[in-house]
Design brief:
Elements (H helix, E strand, L loop, with lengths): L3 H6 L3 H12 L7 E17 L6 E16 L2 E8 L3 H15 L7 H25 L9
Antiparallel strand pairs: 1-2, 2-3
């Protein structure tokens, strides 16, 4: 249901960082080359208006992004806010999942579990919000 990047960016920082550290244990330190970052930037927040379906810029948001190579494979991480560690961990995991032969297939199980937890959490939030729903026909 969710993409891997959505799941990881909404997961606890400590969990994602631990996953990245687990990946890095399989490589020498010179296997990681930082291309750029981690750096803080401002990006446009694009929204879609629901009636006319037109896209507009709602404003700017602060992000932290990292571009790197792990064993010659590109990885990118971006997170809303100022969190260089989180952005770098996301980039490491992104690169690890792109490596030929899928040497880090064990990450998929963890990511699926995190996705299930995210889904359950959002269902609880929607249920809590739904309990405050006002039925205007009753008035």
């Amino acid at each position: 249901m969710y993409t891997t990047s959505h799941i990881l960016s909404h997961s606890p920082v400590a969990t994602v960082t631990a996953m990245a550290e687990q990946v890095l244990q399989h490589y020498p330190t010179d296997a990681v080359t930082i291309i750029s970052g981690p750096r803080v930037a401002m990006v446009q927040l694009r929204m879609q208006e629901s009636v006319a379906n037109s896209v507009f810029n709602a404003g700017e948001i602060l992000v932290t992004e990292t571009r790197l190579e792990l064993n010659g494979t590109f990885g990118f991480g971006m997170i809303i806010g100022n969190d260089p560690t989180f952005a770098t961990a996301l980039a490491v995991i992104d690169a690890a999942l792109r490596l030929p032969g899928d040497p880090h297939a064990d990450l998929h199980t963890t990511i699926n579990d995190l996705g299930d937890q995210l889904s359950t959490s959002q269902q609880r939030q929607f249920a809590a919000a739904n309990s405050t729903k006002v039925e205007f026909d009753v008035f």
